[in-house]
Amino acid sequence: MRKYQRLAALCLSAIVLLGFAAPALAQAGEDEIVIVDVDTSRYDEDGQVSMVVEVRNVEGFDPSELVVTEGGSIINDIEVDVDSQTSVEVGIVLAIDISLSMQNGPLEAAKEAAIEFVNSKADLDSIALVTFSSEVAVVVPFTTTARTVTQAIADLSPTGNTSFYDAVVVSADLYDRSELQPHMIVLTDGADDGSTASLEEAIAAAEANEVRVFGIALESDAFQGGPLQDLAVSTNGLYLSTTDTAELSSLYSQIQRELNNKITVRFQASESRATTTDFAISYGSLRDNQQTEVPGFVLPNVSATGNGNASTTAATFAPPQSRLIESTLPVSADTLKIIGVAGVGVAAMLIMFILFGSTGDNGPSEMSRRLAQFERNRPAAEDDSKSIFSRFALLRNLSRTAEEAAEKRGLLNSVNALLEQSNIALKPGEAIASALGLSILIGLIVGALTQSVPFGAVAFVVAVLLAYATVAFVGRREKTRFENQLPDTLTLLATSLRAGYSLLQAVEAVAGEAPQPTAREYARAIAEIRLGRQVVDALRGISERTQSNDFDWVVIAIEIQREVGGNLAEVLNTVAETMLQRNRLRREVKAMTAEGRLSAIILGLMPFGVLLAIQTFNPKYIVPLFEGNGRFILAGGLVSMLIGFYWSFRITDIKL
Fold first, then answer.
1. First vs last Cα of the chain: how many Å apart?
2. What is the pTM of this model?
């Protein structure tokens, strides 16, 4: 009897000691072994297979007792790697109770433990932060950037009641249409007193998305551990509870070890055909299997000759494997076919109308024939036919409407001057209608592809600005070419005058001998002079079309000479020499400021290049920049960069 009393006392002492040594209570779901992923990317190398397996709630795990089968047949030669980093992307939702019952010490301890957990996560793990009090909020969506989550955790403050069930439903829905392996860690210290959902609905939401729930209970006077425990056990997760806030870090660490409890099993399969194979793994009474499509591999067949000394090898290739590829296009394939056929039809009709449609004109008019004789130097390639805007009534009306709108707003002269400078053979209304039509088309295409009206509107605005920038660039290029040719042009004029030519004959000589665009402009001036315009007025027209300040000086010099007299050839030579020196100085300044302009271009394009590189090699790293406050940071950086880019160019743009 005394012997049994001693034994009972020893058992009671052991229980007491264990109670003091382990303040946290843990209860896990059923033991389970799960195949997370089967990688057959190297299957063509004699059937190499890599299988990622998760071991759940198994104590004293022994990798040597694993058994792998292929179609029911045991594979003897397997390699088990316990410490390898798997390529499986894990998702973890941190659901933290921030109700008033957590204020002061409990919430601060919970924040510290959660931050420590986030900082110790694997690189591929994606973490989302959900808080619940009277309302549930998704503070941070899934991201692989630990700093984003830790900063959000540090900013948490207590408020309201406890909506525990609603938080589970919202957290589980985050895995809808997600390829992440779903996990959820819920920390709470009180009973649910604010949810619209029930416990059954919370469990159903977690099970529907196959979320494994880990519950951390910080026991308090109002705490009810039953619901959180039922949720963890129902989803085959882990339930941990403690009354000491200092134990929270160790509980998170225990969950981290459970999440990292994955092994990689490598083996060589025997199925050489392209087919579906059943791979299974078992550990004692635990078992899981997965149907996997294998691509097959080349199987050598060796046949020996009669004397046994030589052999020939014939390769047997696996039959081709059909794979279903999901389309990522915003519309269906049938819709794309209809759009393509309609586009081809419209394009064919337009080509037919343009090539064979009636122009309403059987030949040049009498007036055109009379004017043509005054244009001896008219370029041979000039087309007398009407433009496409004149061929179709709809386009003609659009052009007329655009021209009237521009005239009402005082933009007609500016557009016309820009087209004249660029030598674009369009009327102002035609150019405006073309730019707007093309920009609307680009906006519709971008909006349809992105399924976003704002993106379509931005594309429309960008297209309009690009159209204007293109025409302005062409105009500046024509002006630069004209001014670079101006010293030689003036020298030719002066030489012609010294040879006894009149000013009109000298201008005709320039129109016939000078390169483009000088020859074109002087030929137009000759045509205007033959129609009755004064020589000085025709030359001033060249200045207005090219918007060249240098040529203004030439016109002023010619006008003064015609009024007061003098040697025009000497004046033109002096002006030519001055412009030659200015052009030489302009080129020297451009050469000296080349480094600054190049630096501005490199510094302006570098952020976009870095952004593209990060987006290519590690897309998830840059996701926080397009979420939440990251958008404001991105917008501010873009504005600052544009200002710096503009300022750098202004510094190097020296006017002479």
1. 116
2. 0.42
